């Protein structure tokens, strides 16, 4: 699939207007040329990218965090995650976030895959990192982060994704991908 | 889990400053009071919500769309999806988007679950809708939408999610959830 040659679908960049530059996100409105030659405006949220960690214990339990999400107005159950500071390498970011949020250190970590959370308007790319060989230490969340650590059997977590009790997309995808990859082994 | 009583985690709304009101998204910076009494600023992207459709043929094939995503600079393979116009009911939105993007009409549609795409900074909630009993008609994309329709066996789509060839989170979650629910039946 030669993405750069796919002129029937591709849009060409024309210009960009910066709207907002915040601590986490930036916002811009770009003008693009469509495949039919017309122009269109695209609202874009710029994000530095993130990692989500799937910490799996030797007993096939998943370590999750409960935290309040102001944007959604709910306490959500999620896999540990965090944004990449200044282009930080995904595994280094995963190691830091896992320890900060849960206190766990992992003896084995590897990137399973990466995905876009909302490609229609946002460039956020999240790396999914598997963490095994977990050693429990002391959590030390960032200033302003209030987090509960919750450990669940993988089977129970899979059920909660399918039943809609786990409502965070990166967490659902991480847990179901873990189950799928375990079955392949 | 009494979410409203969970004072150890919950943040209280203090005030809000509107930054941007676009066609698809809005942006605001809110001030919240943290559980320890301090205040913090939260950058929030407001989104009307969306649906993602899992169209499954009688032969266990999934109908997907290829489309260029300006925000990510790539052509992505995704399940058909679209935003809810003015609080549109999820099934009505799914019916409209499925037909516009792929030409298919579904005799059977039901909401499987709903999830947040980026709860750290965005309120976008996506309903996952299963569509079966597919009848092929003529696609009629919105003005400015350029889309290829692609049909793949469910097993192949699952493999592409696990291998990272399918990079869109809602698509990955929809396909893996479909596989998980099929196994439960």
TrEMBL record, chains A, B:
Domain of life: Bacteria
EC class (word): hydrolase
Transmembrane segments: none
Cofactor(s) listed in the protein's UniProt record: Mg(2+)
E.C. designation(s): 3.6.1.13
UniProt keyword annotations, A-Z: Hydrolase
Every Nudix hydrolase domain range: 45-174
GO cellular component, one term: cytosol
GO terms for MF: ADP-ribose diphosphatase activity
GO BP terms in the entry: nucleoside phosphate metabolic process; ribose phosphate metabolic process
Alphabetical list of Pfam families matching this protein: NUDIX (PF00293)
UniProt cross-references to PANTHER family, sorted A to Z: NUDIX HYDROLASE DOMAIN-CONTAINING PROTEIN, UDP/ADP-SUGAR PYROPHOSPHATASE
Protein name per its UniProtKB record: ADP-ribose pyrophosphatase
Source organism of this protein record: Syntrophaceticus schinkii
